[in-house]
Batch of 2 targets.
Target 1
Amino acid sequence: MRILGIDPGYAIIGWGVLDYKGNKFSVVDYGAITTQAKTPFPLRLQMIYTDMIGLFDTYHPEVMSMEKLFYNNNAKTVIDVAQARGVITLSAQQKNVPIFEYTPLQVKQSVVGYGRAEKKQVQEMTRLILNLEKIPKPDDTADALAMAICHGHASGSLLGGWATCDKELLMIYSLDGTLTYFDQNFAVVSCGGVGFKCFTTLTTLQSLPGVGKPVQLFTYLSVREDALDLYGFATTAELDCFKLLISVNGVGPKAALAILSELSADRLAVCIAGGDAKSLTRAPGIGKRLPSALCWN
């Protein structure tokens, strides 16, 4: 698959073309489209469009991966970037190239494995993944290559649920892969060459096969401003209980895991139905008020 990564803007538009095959990337080319500040803005947009068409005609990408528009306090900047994204999107559409969009958080999580990674960390990891001698310049070009890497990882695994294409948002429902590692509160499942770290319960951990064996986990993806956390469960019943627990005010994912590590899904249902708040307090970190709130809700 040939991917065109784009870091949108109107002064500098970073671009990078990668081939992705067999979970490996190879660099085709990269660079930047630039426009001069003193040039009338409509002409700058025309220049961007023309150069984008040139990229499609030269490299024939199969998909385009682009950063989602982010909020900026400067309204003029947002409007100008939005107009530039418009002509970039139009160029891809006219060449019948599917467009996938990712947030900066998703790119950081995909490239570095940490949603709050610094810009330099992302750039250095991009350099290492692509086996480059140095970080490409300008920064917009390095960001575009990271965007392409993000889509490669997404398309080669269930992370594809992060991307939005044609207004459809997909989510990760389950992982079917190989158990590669587990610890006291998480397991790592390898799917399509990507290892997914799933936080889970003691019950699920005790039911796991040995390392290197096939495993299926039913998952819940928690999306926050600073992180994407994946939670995995051996049964849909345990997953359903987890989702019900975190729907209660004051119950976060960690508290829900603690409760389900102490009580099975069936036992939890019995306790809540019978108003047995005392049994719920056995879970570590659960105070006296929370169990009563759970039973009430």
Target 2
Amino acid sequence: MSYQLRNGETVGDNLSRICREQIEAAISVAKDEVKTDDTPVHEMRKHLKKARAALRLVRKEIGRGLFREQNRCLRDVGRLTSDIRDAEVRLQTVRQLQEVTQRNGRGAYGKLEAMLMLELENFMAAFAEWQTQAVPMLEQAASALNHWTLDQFNCKQLSGAVQASYKQARQALAEATANPSAENFHAFRTRAKTLWYQLRILRPVNPVVLKSLADDLRSLADLLGRAHDLSFLGARLRNEHGKSQWQREGHNRAISALGLRAGSRSGKANQHTRWRKRSSLRFSRELWREKPENFSFLRLRIDIEQGDACFRKLERSASQSRNHVGKVRFVTDQHQSF
């Protein structure tokens, strides 16, 4: 399974294959046919997000009706496990807080962890049939791929679809900046992750540049995700009656410590972590600085010329760097074969 474009396939065939592979992988997870490094719920949901990101690239070409039907189906499968996943995230976040407090010589959150573990077990028991429900829904989504007509789907349309994802993420960033609520930042993270997945699909077009951009988007999504998890856990515990165990155990210092640690991917000292967080946020503002109409395929120019056998790179500007992407020219044959 390869979540990227392949040489020798048309653009349309590539995207159909990618979407089908992710749906079939989700079915395998739901059927317990594969071993996963993560929980089955989380693993399946990752495949669903990848499939929906690919689906958005062909939104116009397959028609709004079919797009809405398939997108709704994949979304509803995800919702079957949303309560279980939320409980997993809360428990995981508390365990991360325990790591911080134990290193600082403070008490652990044993009672809180036990409470959230019980909560997770209750959700798993309440939604024990999620796999039975998910499989036929996913099989229906896979069958619907047979109705895709992407014979005429070309690079210009692909570029426009990526541009639309960029525009949506830019709008979400503006809303989060104007009103920095947890909900708005979560919406921005969702849009940023969609763009990240789509850049992963396009990586063979220019591996160096697109990998760099995708890596930065992933770092940003991880940072926003950690902040969301803490906010999500805090909101859950504030709903407890009276003064909660969370409050009695001095959570503010732990949150600050984990927040500092969240920005670091290499375990460096905390004084460097603040710089990393600011750097990630500066990058997000720089990445979404341009207006969508001036943002042509992440500053990648695709020229479609007839006569060549397949995509090949012609030219890349020497000015390309991690935060500055120059123009790249590619050519393809009349069938848009990769």
